[in-house]
Amino acid sequence: MTHVLLLSGGLSTPSSTRLLAERIAENVASLGETEAVHYEIHELRDSAHAVVDHLLTGFAPSALAEVHEKIRSADALVFVTPVYSQSIAGLAKSFLDTIDPQWLEGKPVLLAATGGTERHQLALDYAVRPIFTYAKAAVVATGIYAATNDWGDPRSAAALTARIGRATRELAGSMLESGGNGSGESSRTTPTTKAGEGGDFSSPDFASLLRAQGIEP
To answer: 6: which of 75, 113, 126, 128 is 20 to 30 A away, CA to CA?
Structure first.
């Protein structure tokens, strides 16, 4: 069984962030063709005090350690955060600061965010995606941003549904590439390059580069 963990960074109950996480979860559940896809939504607000304790002491309380273990063992992650002041929410960023980047290496990840206006949608690419890229996670190309209008206006709501569908299909493809184990190890073999066939990427020193251009340093 494939396990997908959704992390929701909403601060209120209920929240549009949780609503978006649930919409994505519905699509995630329908991804399985040959085997069931199990999903779980974790509210980061439930770990808020534990996150602060971990940041102050360097040790994860047992409740937070359980969430960390779920992240390590999940086949894929969905990370949903509110956007405040054109950046990731403070709780969501603090939670990510408690994660060892090695846990995310090669793991398929779908990123999503909510905000009051469409003007903040680029925050997904400049404030959220770099965090997961640094950890070498396999982040899918399509991010999901939901503004206030996306919940009420029929045309905007239809566009949001389409983005969710496209992003979850990309997540399914990424999980298939990684073998469904969250390890990021693709079943495709990468050809090895022999020395002399473009495999030697060592750079010559600056003096050698000048001599190659007929300039004596």
So the answer is: 126
